[in-house]
């Protein structure tokens, strides 16, 4: 069912598709393959997220940030027809949580946006960062910038909000599409990863604590 959903997304909306690939032959590609292999082997997700011996923490985080971006982008893509200006005029997670958008260019102050607008800004913003060689260097021997983990924390915090919105406002659609197991596995993987490396402030996790 999930494959069918993804096919519909690819056909329906060209804007939602994985936008970042790892170049074969690079260390990052090898790490990505290693991470995917352990994920597919059915290992406990808590074990899967642990840093492999001898690997660089920043490389490991970079690989996961890009992979989570691609996968969450697709999950939202499958939902996007149910998440409209009319159904979701505010980017929120239930009645208690509202997320405003802020960036360094167009929205310098936190600004109320509809959920679809917020998602669009978010995916474009992350894509810009992960394709920026000064932030996510891909060449061997080029060091990560000092603020790399802070940037990743910001990316992952905002990606977590996609889960919050999708789970609280569109869970019925996930179930109807037969995508529940897929989304749950992706969420668990994401959750264990951010907990393993303390990458998100625990207050940000509040909206999904009950779930």
From TrEMBL:
Keyword Kinase on entry: yes
Alphabetized UniProt keyword annotations: Kinase, Metal-binding, Transferase, Zinc
Domain of life: Eukaryota
A GO term, aspect molecular function: kinase activity
Pfam family, one: Mob1_phocein
Binding site for Zn(2+): 83, 88, 165, 170
Protein name: MOB3C kinase
Organism of origin: Rhadina sibilatrix
């Amino acid at each position: 069912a999930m494959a069918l959903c993804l096919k519909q997304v690819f056909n329906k909306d060209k804007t939602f598709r994985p936008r970042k690939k790892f170049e074969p032959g690079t260390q990052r590609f090898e790490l990505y393959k290693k991470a995917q292999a352990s994920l597919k082997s059915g290992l406990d997700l808590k074990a899967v997220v642990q840093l492999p011996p001898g690997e660089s923490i920043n490389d490991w985080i970079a690989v996961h940030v890009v992979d989570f971006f691609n996968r969450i982008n697709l999950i939202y893509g499958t939902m996007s027809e149910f998440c409209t200006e009319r159904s979701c005029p505010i980017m929120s997670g239930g009645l208690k949580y509202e997320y405003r958008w802020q960036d360094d260019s167009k929205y310098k102050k936190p600004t109320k946006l509809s959920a679809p607008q917020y998602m669009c800004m978010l995916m474009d913003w992350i894509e810009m960062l992960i394709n920026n060689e000064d932030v996510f260097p891909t060449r061997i021997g080029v060091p990560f910038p000092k603020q790399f983990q802070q940037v990743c924390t910001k990316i992952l915090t905002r990606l977590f909000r996609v889960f919050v919105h999708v789970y609280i406002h569109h869970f019925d659609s996930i179930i109807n599409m037969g995508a529940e197991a897929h989304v749950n596995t992706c969420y668990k993987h994401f959750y264990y990863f951010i907990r393993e490396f303390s990458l998100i402030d625990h207050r940000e996790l509040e909206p999904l604590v009950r779930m």
